[in-house]
Amino acid sequence: MSGPFTKEQMDMLYGKAADPVYYMEQQGNGFVYAWVNPVCMEIFGIDLTGRTVEECMPRELAHEIHKQYRIAIKRNERHRYRDYSLFSDRGTAMETELTPFRHEGVQYVLAITRDVTEQKKIEEDYLFYQSLVQNSVDPMLMISADFTILDMNPAYEKTFGVERQEWIGRNYDDIPHDKQKFFETGKLLLENSRSTHKASSIFLNRVKSDGREAKFSASYSLIKEDGIIRAFHVVFRELTNELLLKHELKRTENILESYKDALNYAALVLIWDISGMIEFANDNFKKLTGFDSSELTGMNILSIGQAIMPEQQLAHLQSVLKKGEIWRGQVRSLKKNGQPFWVDATIIPLFDVEGRIYQMLSILFDITDRKEMEEQLHHMAYHDPLTNLPNRRMMVKHFREMAAYSRRMGDQVAVLYIDGDNFKEINDQHGHEIGDEFIHQFARALERSIRKRDVAARIGGDEFLILLPGISANDSRSQIESIISRIQQTLKDGWIIDGQQFSPTCSIGSALYPEDGSEFEELIQKADHALYEAKKKGGGIVCFHGEE
């Protein structure tokens, strides 16, 4: 297995993952499976390792996979796409997250696929529900448990000749007496539904806006929270064929009930108003975060769990929602006890009959385990496993940041290339176990010797790098020598392993940015050359670039 990760590392991270994980290596114009987890083998019935995508997938699907991989590589950032064809025979929708990265000139892609069938169903059901209510030709009402009219759709206004603004917020007792007779039958049914907790349908006569009396069916669905009925959703339909209409009403009821059940079962749900004040949180949210719904009601969404979201992501979220579009992304927040958690969030703006946004519906899925595995993988990719110091790839990132700051401040960055003297003898005389502990203690000694803003890294068996930012151009030599002196003294003090004292020495080569070079690799080469000169003079010697 090639690349920056060993098979053992991938097995440890993703071997027990419930989702399929593919570690791909680009070869020419195609991609080869470098490693897959056991779930993939169960799905495909063969070991994909070493095979190309074309060998394992139908032609059209392989073409689509190549297309998505290239999008991720071109953008050089994580990329998600949904695939409905690979498991279409199971009626399953899958979402794959691609993470591209390069190592020693070779392109790799880490692909993690998860089942989003339930989430896709929720999104589709919600869109259907929104369309059903706002665009339906059937009159619809939303009535609270205390018989206050909460909302009505345009079809209700048109059919019965009423104006929404005159009716919203009015209780049954506030309706004019000459109108109450039209609601009496429905009120009795709602009272019965409240006691039995069962949805019902009835037939009743109502006067339409043209003055003609017509027969309607009215279907009442219960809206519950924590087992308590909070409101009723009422759908009217003018009767033309009563038997057919009963069947259609039952189907509509089932769709609405299925949507609500699926939403509450599969996801964490939050609803807040346009100002950000939380109006509803389901039981799943409490199970994950520890916040009770009574605590959340009235809180601002931005303060819940001290949500952690970069300003750029927050600005993008707000701009998307203001346009009335659905926003999707990953958000890190804190539980009530202070522990962090991650959610995959879908936030949907809800519109009133005038087309204005009045609420936000947030559907959240817990992805904490997956994010922790990703963070562990990222740490392993940029750190030395024996010493936990940064590796060469991480030092490139640190150098770019330090160089940019140095250009703004007008100072310098020193590069120290350190090689332990006679380290091979440690392994030869004491064995590899003590040799590994010796390297670990050597790394800790370097960390104790440098300043907080300095960074030490291990780049080879007994080779280390140290970056020293903020070096004054007028006094660079003495500043660097002061830090090197601390390193040498700390090594001289040494440490004890298995009852034996070790006090090693090291040889050091140094180069300066930007005086000796402007690129990281150039400075490393010059510091390495200075180290070579120091090694020729014997152990414990320091040489600066340009010295003979």
UniProtKB/TrEMBL annotation:
It comes from the Bacteria. Residues 411-547 form the GGDEF domain. GO terms for biological process: regulation of DNA-templated transcription. CDD domains: GGDEF (cd01949), PAS (cd00130). Residues 125-171, 248-311 form the PAS domain. PROSITE patterns: GGDEF, PAC, PAS. Coiled coil: none annotated. Signal peptide: none annotated. Residues 327-379 form the PAC domain. PANTHER family: BIOFILM ARCHITECTURE MAINTENANCE PROTEIN MBAA, DIGUANYLATE CYCLASE DGCP. This is Diguanylate cyclase.
